[in-house]
Design goal:
Elements (H helix, E strand, L loop, with lengths): L14 H13 L12 E6 L5 H12 L3 E5 L12 H11 L2 E5 L3 H10 L3 E4 L7 H15 L6 E5 L4 H13 L2 E5 L8 H14 L3 E4 L2 H5 L4 E4 L11 H8 L6 H4 L7 E4 L11 H4 L6 H20 L1
Parallel strand pairs: 1-2, 1-3, 3-4, 5-6, 5-8, 6-7, 8-9
The protein binds phosphoric acid mono(formamide)ester and norvaline.
The site of phosphoric acid mono(formamide)ester has 8 residues, from helix 2.
Amino acid sequence: MKRDLISVLDIEDMMDETLALAEQLKADRTSHSDDLKGKTLAMIFEKSSTRTRVSFEVGMTQLGGHALYLSPKDLQMGRGETISDTAKVLSRYVDGILYRAFKHETMMELAGNSTVSVINGLDDLEHPCQIVADLLTIKEHKGKLKGVRMAYVGDGNNVCNSLLLGAAVVGMDFIAGCPEGYWPNSDIVGKAARIAKTKGCISRVVNDPKEAVKGADVVYTDVWISMGQEAETGTKEKEFIAFQVNSSLMKLAKKDCIVMHCLPAHRGLEIVEEVIDGENSVVFDQAENRLHAQKAIMLKLMQ
Ligand code: CP
Ligand code: NVA
C-alpha cells in the first residue's frame, strides 16, 4: 500500500522514528547509500524552489536513486493534460512523486490518482517536509521537543499550519501571533488544539506578537507574501509591520532563544538583518537539515 505525505498528520504515527532516522543520516551521511538503488523520484515544481528541490535531488543521489526535475512548462500538464492522467502515467514509471503545487486541491488530485507515494513539497495549505527539518533542528539545539515553547510570528500561512500540527504531534508548546484576518487555517487550528490537549501541551493563536514571543525558546517567522500572493504585497506589508521579528521583540523571548526561518527571507520585512544574522539564528542549520529530513522521509515512504 502506498503512503503519501500531504499533511504533517500523515506521518503522525512515525514522526519520532523519522526524526531519529534523520539524526542517524546526519551523523553518517554515507549510510543507507544503496537503499533506494534503482528507484526514481519525479519532482514536479509549479513554483520556484532552492532548498526543497536541491535537498530532495541530492538526497536521492545519496540514497542510490535518481530524481527527475519536471517543470509544468515542459510537461504536457502545461498544455492542458489533466493532473489525473499525469498522475496515472508517472505512476507507471517512477517510485514516488514530489509535488510543489499552487493549490491544495491539485495536490489531492495528484495523490488520489497516483499509485506511488506523493510527497507534498509545499502547497497553499501545508509544507510538511519543512516541518520535519524544523523539528530536527529544534531537537538538536534544545536537546528535546516536549516542553519547548515555540512562537511563530507573522502570516498564518502554509508553514504556520504545518508547524501547528507538528508542534502538537511532538508535544511542544506553540503560540502563533498573527494579524487579525491572517490567522492559520481554522480546521488545522482545531485539529492541532485537539492533539495538543491529548499531549498536555499548548496550541494557541493570538493577535499580539509580544504575547506569542514572551518566554519563548524558539521564535520562527516566514515571509509575509507567499508564492502566489504577490498581488497583496503593498497592503499586506503595512498591516504586518508590528509583526516584524526585530531586536525589541526578541528581548521578550528567553535569552538563549533560537531564531528560525524556513527561508527564503526578506531582510527588513518579516525579520531584520541583525536578528537573522545574529548569534541566536539557526537558519542555516535548519536549511541543511532539509537534506537529512528529506532522506529520512524518502526512506520511510519509498522503500
Ligand atoms: N524553505 C523552502 O521550502 O525553500 P525553497 O522554496 O527554496 O524550496
Ligand atoms: N510561505 C512560503 C514558504 C516558502 C518556502 C511560500 O509559500 O511561499
